[in-house]
Amino acid sequence: MEENNFESSGMKILIVDDNLTNLDLLLRTLSDRGYEISVATDGELALKAVTVSSPDLILLDVLMPGIDGFETCARLKSNPATKNIRLFFFRRKLTPLILSKDSSTEGQITSQNLLKEMKF
């Protein structure tokens, strides 16, 4: 697996999760490490937030009300202005999930292992 080391200096991250506990944990942890964080609690808000915050990375929950993480990803990747933003899917429980190579995502991880996977 390719190692991902993300420099915190000036990096903008959009966290998309309907679970407020996860959102708060990720927000506090990543903010404390110097990342510029924006948040959205569903896919529709994420699509709007991307145009405002221009993130370098999106941390996207798979299971959300309204449009789920897969549909949000599909919309982002079909838009020329957002198709090159790096994206990680995450979910609360570790469940195998196969993504096709053309999905343009970096991978899938659990929210509990997110920081470990980002090499913090």
The outline comes out as globular
CATH superfamily: Response regulator
Number of strands: 5
How many separate domains? 1
Write the H/E string, N to C. Answer: EHEHEHEEH
The major sheet is characterized as: 5 strands, parallel
Helicity level: 25-40%
Spatial order of the strands forming the largest sheet: 2-1-3-4-5
Q: Which fold name corresponds to the CATH topology? A: Rossmann fold
Q: Distance between the terminal alpha carbons, to the nearest Å?
A: 17 Å
Mean pLDDT comes to 77
In CATH's first tier, which class applies?
Alpha Beta
Radius of gyration: 13 Å
**Number of helical elements:** 4
Broad structural category: alpha/beta
Describe this structure in words.
By secondary structure, the chain is an alpha/beta fold. The chain is built from four helices and five strands, in the order βαβαβαββα. It has one domain (12-115): Rossmann fold (3-Layer(aba) Sandwich), CATH 3.40.50.2300. It has helices spanning 20-32, 43-53, 69-78, 114-117; strands at residues 12-16, 36-40, 57-61, 86-91, 107-110. Helix 1 links the parallel strand 1 (12-16) and strand 2 (36-40). Helix 2 packs parallel to helix 3 (69-78).
Key terms for this structure?
single chain, 120 residues, alpha/beta, 4 helices
Quick recap of the structure?
It contains four helices and five strands.
